[in-house]
Structures are given as structure tokens and as C-alpha cells.
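Supplementary Methods S3. Input chains for the assembly prediction are listed below.
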Amino acid sequence: MLEIKDLRVSYGSDVILNGLDLELADGETLAIIGESGTGKTTLGMSIMRLAEARVQGSIRFKGQELLSLSEREMQAIRWNRIAMVFQNVNNVLNPVYSIIDQVAEPMTEHKLRKKGEARARAAELLAQFGLPQKRFSAYPHQLSGGEQQRALLAMALANDPDLLILDEPLSSLDVTTREELCALLEEIDGHRAKLVITHDLDTASRLSEKLAVLYGGRIIEIGPTREVLRQPRHPYTRALVRAYPNMTTVKDLQGIKGRMNRLVSGCPFHPRCTQAVEQCSREIPPLARSLGRWVACHRGGIVTLLSVADLSKSFDSLKAVDSVSLHIEAGETLALVGQSGSGKTTLAKIIIGLHPPSGGTVHLEDKRVERRGKDFYKRVQMIFQNPGESLSHRLSVLELVMEPMEVQEIGTKEQRRQKAARTIEEVELPQTEAFLNTYPHHLSGGELQRVAIARALVLDPELLIADEPTAFLDASVAAKILKLLLNLQERRGLSLLYITHDIAAARKVSDRIAVMLEGRIIEEGPSNEIVTAPRQAYTRRLLSSASALHDFDNTSISH
Amino acid sequence: MHVSLKKEIKQSYIGQAGLIILLLVVALAVLAPFLSQYNPVQQSAASLLSPSPSHWLGTNQVGQDIWSQLLYGARTSLLVGFGVGILGVVLGIIFGVSAALIGGLYDRIVMRIVDAFIVIPMIVVVILVAAYIRPDLAVLILLLALLSWQGAARVIRAQALSLKEMGHINASRTFGASRFYLAWRHIVPDLGPILLVEFIYGVRRAVFIEAGLAFLGIGDPMLVSWGTMMHDAMKFSYLNVWQWWLVPAGVALSLTIIGLTFVSHAAESVLDPRLRGGAVA
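Predicted C-alpha cells for the full assembly:
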């Protein structure tokens, strides 16, 4: 029904939309999401031919090219066949007409109905959208925001358009009104093709079947709404989901590093992307099919950084790790949860190469890992359960942080020193001469763990395996360490394999949780699903025995 | 293990006594030219003189000054002792640490060689070889070192095996460290006290064997050595020269060995906390 091809819109030299392709079938609802400034509204305005900008490309509506229509021809389509609810409620309604007159206006204007009929239809629509009858003849300023929004929705539907464009239809409303209006819209208008433009993931998920993510004037991911939100494939989409406060995901909120900049060559997201490669700054990635989704990314969406298959380890007759398979994506946290003795640490040590496996394979990106050399350890690092033990008592803080670079033979001594100092700052440790020359036995547990983290980070690894990194710390320090890891993930795109017995901590830092018992992964999935709807009895037991401050939480989870 | 070796030895009376004796012997050896005006290998007076103000311990059968021989003999003993001690520990580190880190077949081969050497009575081999090749000082040191690193290697391997599993070594491995780096930067420094004890064992054994060989007349006859002195003095035991010829050499040798034993005893208590007294720092 609606077919947009290579749409380019610019205000002066400011390119807002840069080669956008989109299709919308009859009766389909599509949500366009993205941060403010990505060109969402411009898209809606361009379809309505209301954008005061240079518009190139093609917008075909039921086979008709909108961009080549005359203004008069366009007027026949606007409101009649394509209607739009605008973002800024206050400026849209005319303050000198009553609400019911304004809703009736499009019908009389286009001479679809006589005045009386039009008013009757308007009243019907307003009632459907839940506006009380006594408010029909009120003036816009007498209505609340929610009521104005109802009126606008009624107005947009007055001429029974084929396509409805909703630009941030509900974002200024409170959540209960928003929910009510979503339901009403669904009920009254479920069959109509809709384009929902919003930055609000909740609205998008309620109103749309399909979801397109807009960034830097291009669509970077498109797919079924539920799937896109549950398992984003583009790094930007994932970052957007992580930054959105909601009741579904359990991980702490994370922002997106950097700011949006329109003047970038290549992939618009690459300066903020944590998995960008050289190609990303040169070429614009086309929207391509990737695992049942359309994703515009040179790397085919979020990369699977590490995968292990059928990994086993036996100590004599004991199967410490029993054919474990799992994978970790770039920039995500996978929590490995289980009681002590479940084989978590053994698994970590196999991955990092401290234990030879009895069977199975480890892949780093697409390459099978056999002998682990310096290049492997440059990308994968581990922090150990007991930081005191992992630091040699004979080396000072500075020497400890410089050691990895010394091993890897990176840079000159002075460069190593500077890099070590920067990393020490990054893990929020003091950089005074006195501190750099301190020996580990003079440091507190939290400081030791930070030094250990700095040692692991100084090589700029892509994957950090953290084995109970907070086991020896009290809660306030532990919280800071976990926050630090999350911040590093946001800034550097670090992937984390977070090993813990504490599912309460795991849910706050992980995207996915894998539950381990007696050497096997018994359950694995998005963190929120594992904590709210565990399938295994053992997981339920872990949850019910996890720390809670009130009985209420436990009972609500365990049933 | 955060124990100061220096402190540990200082706190032990035996260790202190041993150190004083050793320092005394070293001082005698170093200051020999100032403490005696005679060259130990040149005839300085008539043969077999009794002690006198010019020759404190008299002269031997060819008229060499015995006091001077005693002083320069300390040099030989210490040179052989420290030379063998250092070489033995170095070989022990090379084979012990590499066996622990490389493991597998290499480890087994090295350890079987070590076992083989340990069952062969070293003293017999040394006597036979020395009698055959008549080694000079350097060759003697080499020979003794080659025959004495095995014990050290075994102890060092055992310790390195346990060190290898420690957190900071594992951490270093996960930075991509080579075995050489691990050995050099982490394991050898951590072996500290063990190396000292093994070194002193080596020194003591070498001092003893060198003296023994010379006493048996197998050593280099031109070498000034306490063993040679005793060997020569024995031939004149029917005279009363043993009082100032045989006894001082014997006492000097015994004192040196006692000093080494005392120091190693104190050093060992560092390794085994059960041997330590109540005053644990």
C-alpha cells in the first residue's frame, strides 16, 4: 500500500533522511522508533507532503507517486486517505473552535458529509475515544492533554483514511491514559494500516506488529515487533532497549556512548558502535536479511563473540563440565548461575585455557580456538574470584597493571606506564604516585579487585570473564564493582561472562542467564524470562533462596 | 608467604653464630694477603719449623708458611663451595622449573635422570672421575656441580608445581605469558628461600668433598687447600707438627662446615613454619 524508496530529505545542507526504504502492506501496523533527531517526524511529514524541505526519491501510495502530485491533488489525499496525528498537541487544535466542530471539519471541508451528519459522526468518534459528551462543545484550552489527544485521534479518523500516521501519539500522556488509548485505538481501529512514529518502546510494542528502527536517517533494523524488542539484532536497537525503563527487562539501565551526529560517512551508527570495523566508516551498510530479520550492518548485526559447543571436562570419574554449549554476543552480559561445585569456574578456566577440556570446541568469532596464544589473550581476559591471590605480592600496583602489556610486548616502557595510569583511572582508583607504588597487601578488597580489573582491561579485551568478582567484597563495594563493569560495557562494548551463585545480582547485570547444575546448563534465556518464568525446578529454588528483603518478593516469584 | 629471610636468620642464635663464623672465614680468605707476608706456594724458610713470631704456625715439609696456607686454603674452599653452590642451583632451577612447567614426557625424562643420579653414590663417582682426570679447580667445580644439582632440581620442581597453580601465575598465563616469562618473573623469585637452602647445601657438600679429595691425594697437588694440608701433615704424624699443621686445617674446615650448617638450619625454619619458634612476625 505504501512504498517508500530511497527517500532523501534535507533542510538546506542538513540531511535528515538519507536513502530510506520502507513498505507497508494493507492493514499492517508499523512502528518507527529511534532517538529524537533521527528523522522520524520528518518521515511522517514527507509522506503527508507537509515537510518544508527538499524531498527526493519516491513515495508511492497505492501505486500513486505522491511526490509528483500537485498540491491540489495532494489535498484530496491528505486527511481523506492519509491522516496524521501530530506530535505537538497544543499547536494543532484551533483555539477558537469547539472540539466537535474541529472533528467535523475535515468531513465538511472535503464535502464528504453535510454539516449535521458530520457533527453526528464526530460525536460518535469522540464518544468512542472516551470523551464525555458534556465536553464535546468545549474549547481546546478547556481540555486536558489526554482529552485533546482523544479529540485529535477522532479527528484523524473522521474521514476514514486508508493510512493513519501517528506521530508520538501518546508520549506526553500518563501511563494509565496511554494504556487506555492504546486499547481504544486497537479496538476501534485494529484493521487500518498505521504508521506509528515514536521514541517510546512501550507504545511501539502495544500498537505495532512490525517495528523499524531509524538511525541517522536510515532504517537499520526491521522485523516483527515482539522479536525485535526481545532479541535485538542491531547494536543500536539493543542499546535502545537497554536504555528504556520498563517492567520487562531486569538489567540495570545503560545509556549509549557518544551522541548522534548526522555528518558521518559510512554507517551512521559506527562512531557509537562498539563492534565497528574499518569498513563501517567507509561504506553505508545496506539493509540485508539476517536470521529472519532485516538488519543494516556490515557485520550482520550483533556479532557472536564466543561460542562453546559440547564442552566437557572430567576429573577422573567426576564430570565437572558435561557437554556445555553456550554463546556470548559482543557487548552483552551472560550470567552463569549455579551453586558452588556446579562446574562454573571449571568452565571458565577451560575457556580461558587454564584447564584443557576433555572434549568439545571453543570458537572466538568464527575461528576455532586450539592453542591460546597472545592474540587470544588480547581479546579474552579473566578476573578471578580472589583478587588477593591473583596479584603477585612482589609487584606494585603500577607494575601489576603494566604486566599484561609487558607480557604482550606492547609499546615502550613509557607508553605502558601511561596506558596503565589511564586504565587505573578508568577503574576509579587514585593515580597518585604513592598509590601506584603500593603493594597489594596494603590494599582493601575492593581496591584489589579494581587492580585486577585494570589488569584485565589494560589489553582492551572484547570479552571479560568475571568469576565471582564480588565474592570477597561487602555489598556496597560489590555494587560499585558491578556498576563499574556495566559502565565499561556501555563505553567499550565489553562482553561479560559473569559467573556467580547469586541470581539476584545476575539479574541486575545480565542480558541472559544460563543456569548450571552438576556440570550441565539446565536452562538458558533472557534474564527477565529466567527470573519471572523459570522452567526448571532448580531455577525456582535458586530464585526462592536468593536474597530478598521481604517475603512478598519470594512468594510472588516462586509460584 | 611473606617472611623476611634476613629477619628470620637474625632472630635465630644458631643462624647468627653461623653467619659470624662464615663472615670470619670469608674475611680471612679475602684479607689473606694482608694477614700474611708469605706466598703460600713459595719456600719461605727451612722445612718443618715449629711456630715462631715470623712463622705463626711454622712451615711444612717444603718450607712453605702454614698460616699463609691456611688463609689461602680458605679461598679454595670457598671458591669451590660457592662455585658449585651457584652452578648447582642454576642447573637445579633450569631442570626443576622447566620440568614443572613443561610437564609430560619431558618432565618424566628429567626426573628419571635425577633419580638415577641420586641413587648413584656421588662420592664414589667423584673419587673415580677425579682420580682419572686429575681436575684443576675449574674442572673440579664443574664436575661437582654436574653431580650435585639433582637434589635441588627435585625440590625446586616440587615447589614450582605448587606455585604453578597459584592465582597470580594463572593470571599471568591469561595475559599470554610464555613459560620462560612465568619462570623468570614469577616462579624463580617466589622460590627465594628454597634456593637459599639448596645453595647452602650445595656449598657445604662441595667444601666437604673438595677437602676430602685433596685429603685422599686425588686433588690437584699444586692447589693450596685444607685437604692437601691435612694430606701432607698426615705423612709426618710421627712428629709433633700435627699440632700446628693438621689441627688448624681440620678446625678451619670443621668451622666452615658448621657455619654453613647453622645458617642452613636457620634458613630452613623459614620454609617450615613448624620449625619456627613462638616469635612469628
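Residues 2-81+161-296 of chain A form a domain with the Rossmann fold fold (CATH 3.40.50.300). The first helix of chain A runs from residue 40 to 47.
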